[in-house]
Write the structure tokens for this entry.
Amino acid sequence: MDRAVAVGKLEILVDEGGFLASLVFTPDRSGAEWNTEKIGRYLLDNRLSGVTPARLNGIIRSFASGSGRVVEVLARGVPAQAPRPEEAEWSALEVPPEAEAVRIAALSSSPPPRLERIRVEKVAVERIVRKPSAFPFLQQKEEKVVEYVKREIREPSALDPSVLRVGYARKGERLGILGAPRPGKPGRTIFGKAIPAESLDEALFALGDGLAREGNALTAQVAGFVRIGRQWADMVPFAFHAWEVRLSANGGTVLVDFSPGNPRLPPPDAPAIHAKAVELSAEKDLHVLSEPEIAALLAEAVRTGTALSGRSLSPDMAGTVETAVAENRMRATMSLRKARGHGAWVDIKAIGAAVGALKLKPLDADRIRKDINAFLASDQLDLVDYVLSEGVPPEPGKDRTIAWSAAFLPPEDAAKIMKKLADFPGAKDLLPSLEVWPLSDGTKVAFVASTQEFGKLSSPVPGRNGRDVFGTEVPAQKGKEPVIMAYENVGQVVESVKSSADGVLFYGFSGGIHRLRVAPHRDAVIEPSASPDSMSASVSIKPGSGFGDPATVEGVLRDLKSVGIVHGIDEAAVANAVMSANAGNPVPGAVVASGKQPVPAGGVRIEWIMKTASGAAVTLRPDGSADFRNQDRFTDAPSGAPILDLVPSGGKGEDGRDVFGRVLKPDRDPAIVPLPSWNESIRSEALPDGRTRLFAAIAGELRFDKNSVAVILLHGIKGDVGPKSGNVRFSGAVKVGGSVLSGYCVYSGGDVQIDGSVEAALVSADGAVRIAEGIKGGKRGVVRARHTIDAAFAEQARLLAVEDIRIRNACLLCDVKTNGHLNLSGERGALIGGTVRAKKGVDVHALGSENGVRTLVSFGQDFLLVDQIEGEEREIEKLKTLMIQTERRMTELESTGKGLAAVRSDKLKILKLIEKRTFRLFNMREKLEEHFPSEIRVRGTVYQGVILESHGRTLEIVGSRHKVVFIFDPHNGHIQEKPLT
């Protein structure tokens, strides 16, 4: 038992409903002592039971340790739960736009809701059941059976008829789902007394007119507005006009079905109905009523409230039947056209009479009758060229053919033989028939021998007689005989074709004619051989005949290579042997190749390709005068530029080779010239003549020192760029230890770092430009960069950058153009005077000056396009001037006409160039108007005299401003001012 003791006052508090009992303890030294046993008895005395000893221990410890009033909850009752009526979860039920306009009028004229609730009860129903007796001759027994069936009872509802919501639904549409009602649950007090639950007078959902309940789903029985109240809903009927355009069952008439809707709605869409009718009629080549006729038809139906069902929209047309017999009497046909609309039909008897009048033999009447009935029952409108009867055409005798026994070559090999004959100089003398039958694609080629039979004719086969549609016999023709045109060296012996010479057979077939010729042919024979020591080689040649391959230098070289003889070949000796063989003289053996003995070879010779710097402090101009600005101090090596060739040259020795190309090593020569070395800044390439060419792998300064070649990325100037250094033009980065003096320039293919300042000079970089001290332009200084420009200050200079320009202090009287930001970041970052064009805007501390110096700032556009536009305009003016000169020239030539066509052609070219450049100029100007997000940010003061411009809109500052931001609003086309936050 817990020994804790609490001293004070104790009381029990119970709320009015008896749902909560609490024990309240107030510490008091003059009060009673309380422990767990005493508190337990106190609770029982007040009819509170069920508190566990563990709970009592916790309570006494809480009272003993508390410094003030302590409340502990002892028991909680269970309140009664309220019942929930049957409620609906509704679908969207959106009102269509065409119904919204008349919704209020339609609802205001409708009667109030007639609400009913459905109550289901079980009803006892008695029925008599007859049971069979044990024996057939006995009477059946009758027994009364009571069954209970469910019955729905509709009762008037007393619900509030106020309308809370209105929607729209079409017939059959599901409106919502009813949730099941829930009865209330009774509660209980802390003393165990039961609290009854509430009951509802109207727990069921009431249905009005036009609604049906299927299970727990509500559906619309009619189309119209849905009125929804608290626990009820009904329908106010409101239907739309409904129409459908269709073809009739036989496809010959366009029909319309139309159900008039509410008369308050606009009339139905006659153009849409007409368009649908035209669409359906296009498939069957039908005609339909006009839009006004359809509109009048529908208006009358709406006025009278009469529905149209299957109303014809097509005009009337009578049916027709036509028959025809082909000119060769081998085919008889019939064409039928069904009636359109209410036109007269062609019946089966009229069709039968038209077919019978032809007197066709044979005639399948059952087939024709079946097909015509199927057509008349189908939705086809026309039956065109239906075959009534077809004759049996005569079959001619089988054409005689030629069976070829020659082994024809594949097409690719045949093409080579024909090309060989075509290229043969004496082809026309060898084959005179080439004048009448030239070589062509598709000709077959085979090698044949004298007296060889390579073709045999087939035996003749008789044909079969035919019969036309009137039963008259048509005699058959005999088969065709093959037509053979035999040219040189080909003979025909009755039923076979033979060759009269050794050579090549050419066979072609075109226009029904077989063409044959045999051309004499034999290739030359080449036999190469090598000497025992492999230091020489010879060749023997047997001459060819006809258009066979003669001995050729290429053929001899190919055969030499085939046996491995590849080195030291004397092509002159080969040519002499070939000439002798082609003159008809056999060549028994001619020496055509010799080996090479090894000889000493050595180091390399350097041949410079790149012009290296002389180191001179002066260069000569074309007129002979001295130029101290453009000096020749260093060698600039662009990336990929050739530098020098390493040419093998004596000293070390050369390997020898035998005729088979095998290497014969020479003795080593001790006198060796070492090759120069290079690093990754140099790229080497072996040339076909044995040289090695070195290229600059990167752009930079070329250095050749102690037999080592390298390209240095950075070119450094220790002092100023001035009289001592001259102008600097370098493909890589440049670092200037001093300043760039007036009248000098620095061109760099990379970044430029200047530790001093830039005077009235030119600094141009493909990368970034960084100037430690600043720019003193003197109205002539120019600094341009493809990336960024960084400087301490800038005075009377022109600054151009593709990216940002960052100046730590002031920018005075400068012409600035950038497609990035102009950022004057310091506390003395003032932009005073001059013109600034900054695509992304300006960030300054002070803009303008107190004395009102004119300062123009443009922003929000691609200002680099301006230079391109000006260049394009200059080119167009040049072309226009050239056009005027060309037109004058045409006027001068019109009298004679000589050369006029050429001048007109030049004028056309100029016109096309003007059109092309004008289109390009238009696109540039359009792109110039494109707006880019930008702002003029003034951290301090903007003074009077400052003019802001964007897209042709200007804002002149009158009076000073402090800490402001200017932006261009593309929506209203104005420059707006906002406070800097």
In short: The CA atoms of residues 291 and 828 lie 80 Å apart.
